[in-house]
């Protein structure tokens, strides 16, 4: 029996993330398809890892201002490419 009631979801729907970020879901879907926002595709649906959203929120909080999502995306792509070159998992 799970006694910890304060545990949040592991994944969010695109609609939930769009509401949290106060953006149009279409904008978020476009960013996901352009590999500009982290998501997991399950057949025809996308879900966003809570860890990715928490990382974005932590980055904004730490910087104390506006975070350039393009920089975060570039960093994420570089890390993924480095993992592929090193023989890590492709996802």
TrEMBL record:
Q: Which residues belong to any copy of the Helix-turn-helix domain?
A: 11-59
Per its UniProt entry, which superkingdom is the organism in?
Bacteria
- The transmembrane segments are none
- Give this protein's Gene Ontology molecular function annotations: DNA binding
Instruction: Quote the Pfam families the UniProt record gives.
Output: HTH_17 (PF12728)
Output this protein's name.
DNA binding domain-containing protein, excisionase family
């Amino acid at each position: 029996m799970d006694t910890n009631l304060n545990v949040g979801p592991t994944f969010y729907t695109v609609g939930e993330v769009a509401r949290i970020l106060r953006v149009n879901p279409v904008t978020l879907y476009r960013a996901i398809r352009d590999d500009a926002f982290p998501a997991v595709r399950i057949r025809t649906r996308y879900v966003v890892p809570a860890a990715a959203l928490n990382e974005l929120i932590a980055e904004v909080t730490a910087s104390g201002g506006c975070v350039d999502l393009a920089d975060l995306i570039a960093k994420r792509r570089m890390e993924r490419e480095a993992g592929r070159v090193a023989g890590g998992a492709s996802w």
